[in-house]
Design brief:
Bound molecules: GDP-perosamine
CATH superfamily of the largest domain: Hexapeptide repeat proteins
Number of domains: 2
Structural class: alpha/beta
Order of helices and strands: EHEEHEHEEEEEEEEEEEEEEEEE
Shape: globular
Largest sheet: 8 strands, mixed
CATH class of the largest domain: Mainly Beta
Length: about 210
């Protein structure tokens, strides 16, 4: 059984750990600046400063970012790159309860959770979260560190830039482009290109800030 350490010990880590276990990974523990107690049987190993020691004690151990995101920030990608620089593998995580169809490319550390469909020809950058029951249709191109929240639908041929957050239950119609650092609110319907970063809500989605 391969070893994995989870970086972050909040809600996202809990979902991640459960999927990792279904895939047969052994969870060494988690790092967090705060002690979040034991999470699904995984104990805190210390802050991220402990990571080098974890790798020394568990050669070949993988690191997965268990810090989620609800905005256009870049923390997830920075944490993943820091772990890779220490020497950790940062593998793709694909739930056995998801569907990933043909000619899909997933970047390092991208997580495909339960109930997700990624259709043929779609690709993602690194450190993305395709969260529970999200749909990524054919030929979409997602950048690095994109979070598609639970139940969101990204239609065919959509382009989403780095660090975007597509909120729970949102819909992005086919062929639209969303620029880097944008946030689409829960339930919003994006029907036109988003060319300025900001927060977009409603149907049709309009810029809030
Ligand atoms: O630099 C860090 C760091 N910054 C924050 N390194 C490490 N190792 N941990 C860090 N954290 C920790 O991430 C915080 O101390 C906290 O324990 C955790 C974030 O937990 P929280 O439950 O607040 O959020 P989350 O990021 O796990 O989940 C959000 O995003 C998910 C995608 C939530 O809003 C979820 O509902 C959502 N599904």
């Amino acid at each position: 059984m391969a070893d994995a350490v989870v970086i972050g010990g909040g809600g996202h880590a809990k979902v991640l750990i459960a999927v990792l276990r279904k895939l047969g990974w052994s969870i060494v523990g988690y790092t967090d600046r705060d002690d979040r107690g034991v999470i699904l049987g995984a104990a805190r190993l210390g802050s991220d400063d402990a990571l080098a020691g974890v790798l020394a004690g568990h050669p070949g151990c993988a690191a997965l970012v268990g810090v989620g995101k609800v905005d256009g920030s870049s923390l997830r990608l920075r944490l993943q790159r820091a772990a890779a620089a220490v020497g950790f593998e940062t593998p793709v995580v694909v739930s056995p309860h998801s569907v990933v169809n043909e000619e899909v490319r997933l970047g390092a550390g991208t997580m495909v959770f339960d109930g997700v469909i990624v259709n043929s020809g779609a690709q993602t950058g690194d450190a993305c979260i395709l969260n529970t029951n999200a749909t990524i249709e054919h030929d979409c191109i997602l950048g690095d560190d994109v979070h598609v929240a639970p139940g969101a639908t990204v239609s065919g041929g959509v382009r989403i830039g780095d660090h975007c957050m597509i909120g729970a239950g949102a819909t992005v119609i086919h062929g639209v482009s969303i620029c880097a650092g944008s946030v689409v609110g829960a339930g919003a319907v994006v029907v036109a290109d988003v060319s300025e970063p900001g927060v977009y809500v409603g149907s049709p989605a309009r810029r809030l800030s």
